[in-house]
Amino acid sequence: MGSIGFLDSDAPFCRRFDFESSGVTNINWSATPLQTASNAGNVPLVELLLDLGADVNSTACPGGKTALFAAVEAGHAEVVKILLARGAQVDAFGNHESEPHVTCLMAAVRRGDAMLVQMLLENGADPDLSKILSAVIDSGNNNALISLAQAGIDINQRIKVDFLKLKNQLRFTPASDGILGITAELICITPLGYAVAHGGWIKGAVPDIAMTMLDLDADLNASLWEESFEYQSLLHFVISQWIGRRNSFYQGIKHVKGLVTPKLIEILLSRGALPGASGHGLDSSNQATPLQLIASDEPKEGWPETFEVAETLLKAGADVNSTQCLSVLQPLEAAAFMGNFDLVKLLLSHGADVKSSALQEAIRGFFKYDAQPEVSMAVVNLLLEKKADINAPPSYDGMGMTALQWAVHGNFLPLVRRLINLGAEISAASPDATYGGTAIQIAAKDGHLEIAYLLIHHGADVNRASHNFPYEEEETSAIDLAAREGRLDMVQLLINEGADTHLPGSKRYRRAERLAEREGHVAVADLLKHYFEDATWD
């Protein structure tokens, strides 16, 4: 063991250091002379102590820092070079009490010192991105990232990150874990995705380091996540956040839309992002294409317009009739449902299929909790003007109902009359178990007298029965449904129009009367008894 007079070159002596640059302050630790000299950047003293036999890798002190770590943390490149040449362990941990596994390379990255990063990598530092990427992102230092890339590190390889940390950065609620199907403590994500997710919407701007990654040819179209719950490209992820599809997963973020601008989407497309790439996952919104997501957005005052983004996507080659995800509405259908008149017009001008289920979706849009009837009607009129298919089959989200059935359900008498005059199929039946049946059955159930009368006089079959209504094991006809709901006037109208309360078979029984009595509709039951008092129970 070397010494200088009475001074043992490896003996610790107490000294107080302030490490604000690393985020750890006022740590008391015992340092050897070599560690102290390295931290101070005293090159002659470092060389002298090493020549006298000081242990270059000493961690005997409670703080556990090696001289190399102290030099890196303080940013003394010349001392780092000397220590490495004398055998310093390049991957030694700093052993902070709060962060016990911070390596020299991570400390250099946090400083944003590209020269030190390069020096450590050249001397064999472990380039595991899973360990150092969080430090790169936290520092936001482009030079350190460039140094990693120049050293041959693949910036497209997925890295494992702490999901709890990422969840806190994205401000997911605890409930989102189950919704997203996340069970692992670590998830895999691309560095580019991590950079955007970490800094984009929380800080109100796209981090510069993400743009640097694009300059370094980061793969824009690689799926961000490796976990089974969600495979998304960066464009898909950015748009899904921009339109606020996941506002329910956020705490304290009221205006997510204002944080990621259409300009970023334009930049990603100009850099080669595929405009039609969909995601995959448990959430159907992850499976949609970017244009489907945009069309599903609800235009509101104070939010960036979806029109600009949709136009950008279309100019970049997005499929206006995308059906890549069958569980999500086509763009035109979604825009019609949301009552987005301008977007509907834009999609039609780019060749959107007017023969889709857009018309029924526009009418269904009247039933949204915050629907604007005049806007929805403007969309309906536009689609009819463009010769929309009145009898198009129900969409995935359309609850199995045609345009006429939705108009009947909404008691839109002028629209019902218009659809009938344009050739709507009055007898079409819906397989849906909530509304179900034919238009006359829906009118009877909902109590829309004028519409029922109109349908009957255009040939509706008042005695057609179906299994399509909930809570009933047997087939139900229009009068059965009217009786069950206590629609006295409707029951009288249907009787006047020839409704038969008896189901076919060997036994004739008062089905409608039984339903009325079951639900406590005494007046309806008495009316039916008056007309059918000769019928027997089954």
TrEMBL record:
<protein>
    <submittedName>
        <fullName>Ankyrin</fullName>
    </submittedName>
</protein>
<keyword id="KW-0677">Repeat</keyword>
<dbReference type="Pfam" id="PF12796">
    <property type="entry name" value="Ank_2"/>
</dbReference>
<dbReference type="Pfam" id="PF00023">
    <property type="entry name" value="Ank"/>
</dbReference>
<dbReference type="InterPro" id="IPR036770">
    <property type="entry name" value="Ankyrin_rpt-contain_sf"/>
</dbReference>
<feature type="repeat" description="ANK">
    <location>
        <begin position="474"/>
        <end position="506"/>
    </location>
</feature>
<feature type="repeat" description="ANK">
    <location>
        <begin position="29"/>
        <end position="61"/>
    </location>
</feature>
<feature type="repeat" description="ANK">
    <location>
        <begin position="399"/>
        <end position="431"/>
    </location>
</feature>
<dbReference type="InterPro" id="IPR051165">
    <property type="entry name" value="Multifunctional_ANK_Repeat"/>
</dbReference>
<dbReference type="InterPro" id="IPR002110">
    <property type="entry name" value="Ankyrin_rpt"/>
</dbReference>
<feature type="repeat" description="ANK">
    <location>
        <begin position="100"/>
        <end position="132"/>
    </location>
</feature>
<feature type="repeat" description="ANK">
    <location>
        <begin position="327"/>
        <end position="359"/>
    </location>
</feature>
<feature type="repeat" description="ANK">
    <location>
        <begin position="435"/>
        <end position="467"/>
    </location>
</feature>
<feature type="repeat" description="ANK">
    <location>
        <begin position="63"/>
        <end position="95"/>
    </location>
</feature>
<keyword id="KW-0040">ANK repeat</keyword>
